[in-house]
Design goal:
- The complex is a heterodimer.
- By secondary structure, chain A is of the alpha+beta class.
- Chain A contains 9 helices and 20 strands.
- In chain A, strand 7, helix 5 and strand 8 form a beta-alpha-beta unit.
- The N and C termini of chain A lie far apart (50 Å).
- In chain B, strands 1-2 form a two-stranded antiparallel ribbon.
- The two termini of chain B are 47 Å apart.
- In chain B, 30% of the residues are buried.
- Classes of the chains: A alpha+beta, B mainly alpha.
- Chain A: Belongs to the ABC transporter superfamily. Spermidine/putrescine importer (TC 3.A.1.11.1) family.
- Chain A: Part of the ABC transporter complex PotABCD involved in spermidine/putrescine import. Responsible for energy coupling to the transport system.
- Chain A: It catalyses: ATP + H2O + polyamine-[polyamine-binding protein]Side 1 = ADP + phosphate + polyamineSide 2 + [polyamine-binding protein]Side 1.
Chain lengths: 363, 290
């Protein structure tokens, strides 16, 4: 059976790693500590250095400087096949000339493990990904989701000390992707494995991870829990990348106040000094101001420019009288519809100081 | 309203098919006139002599030892050449496929360079290099490695060597094309799963490059079977290949029937080689359309 006992669990540690290609710095002094059994996602737009980071951990890319540790072992210069890291590749990278069973037992053969154990291990791995009875199928006979599971089984059968996943769900359709997310979480709990998960899908990262490391231009901008990232973004890049935030330039007026045009906004967080600032407004945090809105809320007025019916919610776009565009969501229920204005009508929205997020502009 | 009326799309499709046939016609005509008809005439000649059917031309394959000795030598040479081009071409293709585009193009250009000179020129070049007083022998002699010159040419060795040189691109190119199509991720996956470089090569890369190798082998083997100029110039009369047998029968003995029968038998041999290879991989992959 596949079972990672607590003693087997190790963390991974990337210490001040850089990678340059000529003058281009693909990775710029990145550090990340992954605790044993933790699920950490690397989230960033394409070209941010995610793939290089993955290559660094997998052993396909040598760092220009810095080191990589697996538990207490320095693996910076160890070749991939000695690292004991299971990798699930974006396009699964299943061997087309082998059956499902041969694919999954490849790590056992490569490690010259005694053949007597193979059957049990194969059965365990197939059960784990719910593909019992598929061992003699050919790879090309499988659906995308099934290939995904085979790749997963192949990466866990040798009980690796770390599992890397490179956008493993990006090739699947939305529905399958969501069910695989839940399944991967279940698998993570069951195996207790340490997982580093690379993705460009923020919702996927927020749903699955213990912590998310946001990457931009070869650096980690913020490494935090999903909730912290959403509610306390480190800068405008994170705020823009996580959730549906609209950014508006503001200027510092005091320790807890900023000005947006001629409106003064209060925030319950301290306003950073000496930097260009932006107000990050999540559409779900804006409410249409009526008499029920808390008195302490910041109020912004403008004109409705467009409304979009999106099924479970209605998105309202508005232009502020001080300039700048915002949007908010109204639930598409009766109460929500009461607040609905037509394009061209004036509207006042409220933003609670707790939800008034002021971030420094990203460099 | 009648149902039997063809829909507009049907008639459109038919007129399109007519146009396609029209476009194909010149090519079909050329192939028909210059290939099918002469081949038919060739086969006919081997069985029709002096106003009657005869099998005497084919009987000679059983009775005349020159015939089957020649076929034997031809197949032996083809086999050795094929084996040697695999051993020489595989590493070249492997390196070229692994290099960045710019460098791999340079390697392939070097492989293809000999293509731009005629077979005749290349045969004479080998003659100059390999003859008793040639560059190779005099270099070895002055280095003190040999006392008397080695017999490097005017024999089977010289023929095989020059044939390998000429046919190497036919091995390298299909191999390269196949290797280029092997996703790099499969090799990366293999090594991440614990496979040593050798293990990954033997279990992943080699099996996936096999179609290209078989394609190259078939091409080289079949082309060698029909080689003429190279054995004629470098064989020194000791190397006797099938094509030379054909030419002798026409030029020396004016025996068109005998020459035709040899050609027909050689053609059947080629078909058999293709048939054999197509059991291993689909024919489309041998000629590179897939």
């Amino acid at each position: 059976m596949i079972d990672a006992t607590k003693a087997d669990r190790v963390g991974a540690s990337i210490r001040a790693a850089s990678k340059s290609y000529g003058h281009f710095r693909a990775l710029d002094n990145v550090s990340l500590e992954v605790a044993p059994g933790e699920f950490v996602s690397i989230l960033g737009p394409s070209g941010s250095g995610k793939t290089t980071f993955l290559g660094l951990l997998g052993g396909f890319v040598q760092p220009t400087s810095g080191s990589i540790w697996l538990g207490t072992r320095d693996i910076t210069f160890e070749p991939p096949h000695k690292r004991d890291i299971g990798i699930v590749f974006q396009n699964y990278a299943l061997f087309p000339h082998m059956s499902v069973g041969e694919n999954i037992t490849f790590p056992l053969r490569a490690r010259r493990l005694p053949k007597s154990n193979w059957a049990d291990k194969l059965q365990g791995a197939l059960d784990m990904v719910e593909l019992g009875g598929f061992e003699s199928r050919r790879v090309h006979e499988l659906s995308g989701g099934q290939r995904q599971r085979v790749a997963l089984a192949r990466a866990i059968i040798f009980e690796p000390r770390l599992i890397l996943m490179d956008e493993p769900l990006s090739a699947l359709d939305k529905q399958l992707r969501e069910s695989m997310q839940i399944e991967l979480k279940r698998l993570h709990r069951k195996l207790g494995a340490t997982i580093v998960y690379v993705t460009h899908d923020q919702r996927e990262a927020l749903t699955m991870s213990d912590r998310v490391a946001i990457m931009n231009k070869g650096r980690f901008v913020q490494i935090d829990t999903p909730e912290q990232l959403h509610d306390h973004p480190a800068d405008s890049f994170v705020a823009r990348f996580i959730g549906e935030a609209t950014l508006l330039p503001v200027t510092r007026a005091g320790n807890d106040t900023v000005t947006l045009g001629d409106a003064v906004l209060r925030t319950s967080r301290s306003v950073p000094q000496g930097k260009a600032l932006s107000l990050a407004v999540h559409s779900e945090k804006l409410v249409v101001a009526d008499d029920n809105a808390p008195h302490a809320s910041n109020r912004l007025s403008g004109t409705v420019t467009e409304t979009l019916y999106q099924g479970e919610s209605i998105r309202v776009f508005l232009k502020l009288s001080s300039g700048g565009d915002l949007s908010l969501r109204l639930p598409s229920n009766h109460a929500g519809r009461l607040h609905l204005k037509k394009p061209g009508e004036p509207i006042t929205v409220a933003l609670h100081p707790e939800d008034t997020i002021v971030v420094p502009d990203a460099p | 309203m009648t149902i039997s009326i063809a829909s507009p799309s049907d008639s459109h499709e038919r007129s399109e098919q007519r146009l396609m046939l029209l476009l194909l016609a010149p090519a079909l005509l050329v192939v028909g006139a210059l290939l099918i008809v002469p081949l038919g005439w060739l086969a006919w000649q081997s069985i029709w002599q002096d106003g009657g059917f005869t099998i005497v031309n084919y009987q000679r394959f059983l009775t005349d030892s020159v015939y089957w000795m020649t076929f034997l030598q031809t197949f032996r040479i083809a086999f050795v050449v094929t084996l040697a081009t695999v051993l020489l071409g595989y590493p070249v293709a492997y390196v070229a496929a692994g290099l960045p585009q710019r460098w791999s193009m340079i390697v392939l250009a070097l492989v293809l360079l000999p293509f731009w000179t005629s077979v005749l020129v290349r045969a004479y070049a080998w003659l100059i290099l390999l003859q008793r007083t040639g560059i190779v022998n005099s270099a070895l002699k002055s280095a003190g490695l040999i006392d008397s010159p080695l017999l490097l040419v005017n024999n089977e060795f010289g023929t095989v060597l020059a044939t390998i040189h000429i046919l190497l691109p036919f091995m390298v190119l299909p191999l390269y094309a196949t290797m280029k199509k092997i996703p790099q991720e499969l090799v990366m996956a293999g090594s991440s799963l614990g496979g040593s470089p050798l293990h990954v090569f033997l279990r992943v890369f080699l099996p996936l490059s096999l179609p290209g190798m078989i394609a190259g082998m078939v091409l080289v083997f079949v082309l060698t079977l029909g080689f003429y100029i190279t054995p004629e110039l470098l064989g020194g009369g000791r190397t006797y290949m099938v094509s030379m047998l054909v030419s002798r029968n026409i030029q020396v003995y004016n025996e068109w029937g005998a020459a035709s029968s040899i050609s027909v038998v050689l053609m059947i041999c080629v078909f058999l080689v293709f048939k054999l290879a197509s059991l291993l991989i689909p024919f489309e992959r041998i000629i590179g359309t897939r």
